């Protein structure tokens, strides 16, 4: 099987290299998500959580103490929170207000600790009803699942193979109206987003809506899918959301296949000035189970380079900031901490928010059986939570954080500083700084205009 995977990788990587090598990428740091004051936000956090895919209530296995621990251990300020369409709309046109209230309760756990919450209408493999036992997919409700009696074999050696099952392809083909037999489904989905946006439009912790996780076109793939029914779904969702919520950011994902691995996307631009490009990054060598070492590391670095160029070019086309919605790997593999650190450095280089996949307990996450693993130290990193201007450079080194920006009078710059590198807090090279010891945040007042170069070093 691994030989098959390597063959797929070779084809993908060669195609990706050709695509990326033909043009130079636009400059990074072109656009940012801003807060109500107009400060540029740097989002740093986790996907929470994969466990929501299988729980009867569609909620992640999460307690408020988990949120408290995450902040205490890693100082994160962002969460991509998984929703399930099956829980939002259990029957056509019927929206479960109890579920939305339970989501709101969890959003508040984050909000009271200064987090920004991205609501992710999550799907994998269409939905829980693709098999009688519900063991494979998640997301879509039973009433929207039409397999037409086509088979969905179980027991695949890897979960992605379910996407190739005839029944799963048929379910997606009905949703995208490729079959022409269920034109209502995309509008139902957009209506579910209207219900979610109506519930959270005034929630100060909610920063936006991630319209669909890792879209799959079924029998329609590539540019025909992305610029066809996928773009149409996004336009319908944007219209429904904006009918109730004029302000929150709307996150759009390219298709997962190929783009996760570094290939370009054909996603078009959208007529809305608060759209965010929200790709995922899973270099194929690591996705095939290799560690970040040797030839796998070389290919991974190469594909990350292609991914960067393709995403910068796409963000320019969409006139959108970039947030990396997912990246992650098995933290027991060789080189895994270095890989995560390199993606976080890329985030700083591009001014790109990021959510690690995922917060769940286990070898990919920060904790295994409740015990902190190597990911905690990597994610517990100095970063600017909010910047009082337009960033031009962000660079983190051990015991030193550099933030350069064109000040715009939007407010002070807030910087999280980890205890191991900044045990007594930090001092700022310019401006007036105040240190919040409990939350480990240095707040720096700088002039309201002009170029600012802020260097933070240990001490008060
Ligand atoms: C064939 N298709 C459509 C496909 C293949 C592989 C992935 C994937 O690895 N995704 C990466 C991670 N993202 C999900 C959650 O969004 C996780 O379960 C995957 O590990 C997605 C789609």
In short:
By secondary structure, this protein is α/β, with parallel strands linked by helices. Helices cover 32% and strands 20% of the residues.
Give an overview of the whole structure.
There is one protein chain. The protein is α/β, with parallel strands linked by helices and 460 residues long. Helix content is 32%, strand content 20%. The protein is built from eleven helices and 20 strands. It has helices spanning 2-21, 64-74, 85-88, 97-111, 166-175, 184-200, 222-242, 284-287, 294-318, 336-350, 374-379, and strands spanning 40-41, 44-48, 78-83, 116-121, 206-210, 249-252, 275-277, 280-281, 323-327, 353-356, 367-368, 371-372, 383-387, 389-397, 400-407, 413-416, 426-428, 432-436, 441-445, 450-458. The strands form four sheets. Strands 7-6-5-4-3-2-10-9-8 form a nine-stranded parallel β-sheet. A five-stranded antiparallel β-sheet has the order 1-13-16-19-18, with no helix packed on it. Strand 14 and strand 15 form a beta hairpin. Helix 1 (2-21) crosses helix 9 (294-318) and helix 6 (184-200) crosses helix 7. The chain is globular. It starts with a helix and ends with a strand. Ligand MNI binds next to loops.
């Amino acid at each position: 099987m691994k030989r098959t995977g390597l063959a797929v990788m070779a084809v993908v990587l060669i195609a990706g290299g050709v695509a990326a090598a033909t043009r130079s990428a636009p400059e990074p740091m072109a656009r940012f998500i801003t807060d109500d004051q107009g400060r540029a936000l740097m989002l740093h956090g986790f996907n929470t959580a994969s466990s929501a895919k299988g729980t009867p209530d569609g909620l992640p296995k999460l307690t408020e103490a988990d949120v408290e621990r995450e902040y205490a251990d890693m100082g994160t300020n962002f969460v991509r929170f998984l929703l399930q369409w099956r829980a939002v709309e259990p029957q056509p046109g019927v929206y479960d207000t109890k579920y939305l209230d339970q989501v709101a309760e969890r959003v508040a756990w984050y909000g009271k600790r200064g987090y920004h919450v991205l609501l992710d209408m999550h799907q994998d493999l269409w939905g829980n009803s693709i098999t009688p036992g519900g063991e494979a997919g998640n997301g879509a409700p039973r009433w929207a699942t039409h397999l037409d009696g086509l088979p969905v074999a179980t027991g695949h050696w890897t979960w992605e193979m379910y996407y190739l099952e005839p029944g799963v392809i048929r379910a997606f083909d009905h949703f995208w109206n490729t079959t022409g037999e269920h034109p209502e489904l995309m509008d139902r989905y957009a209506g579910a987003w209207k219900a979610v946006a109506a519930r959270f439009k005034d929630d100060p912790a909610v920063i936006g809506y991630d319209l669909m996780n890792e879209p799959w076109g079924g029998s329609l793939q590539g540019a025909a899918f992305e610029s066809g029914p996928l773009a149409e779904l996004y336009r319908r969702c944007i219209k429904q959301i904006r009918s109730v919520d004029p302000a929150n950011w709307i996150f759009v994902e390219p298709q997962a296949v190929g783009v996760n691995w570094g290939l370009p996307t054909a996603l078009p631009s959208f007529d809305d000035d608060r759209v965010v490009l929200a790709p995922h990054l899973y270099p194929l060598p690591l996705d095939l189970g290799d560690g970040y070492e040797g030839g796998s590391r070389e290919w991974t670095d190469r594909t990350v380079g292609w991914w960067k160029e393709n995403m910068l070019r796409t963000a320019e086309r969409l006139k959108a900031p970039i947030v990396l919605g997912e990246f992650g790997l098995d933290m027991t593999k060789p080189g895994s901490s270095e890989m995560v650190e390199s993606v976080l450095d890329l985030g700083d280089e591009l001014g790109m928010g990021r959510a690690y996949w995922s917060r769940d307990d286990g070898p990919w996450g920060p904790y295994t059986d409740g015990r902190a693993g190597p990911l905690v130290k990597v994610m517990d990193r100095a970063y600017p939570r909010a910047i009082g201007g337009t960033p031009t450079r962000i660079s983190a080194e051990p015991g030193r954080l550099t933030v350069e920006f064109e000040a715009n009078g939007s407010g002070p710059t807030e910087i999280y500083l980890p205890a191991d590198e900044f045990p007594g807090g930090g001092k700022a090279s310019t401006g007036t700084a105040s240190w919040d010891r409990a939350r480990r945040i240095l707040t720096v007042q700088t002039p309201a205009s002009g170029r600012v170069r802020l260097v933070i070093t240990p001490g008060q």
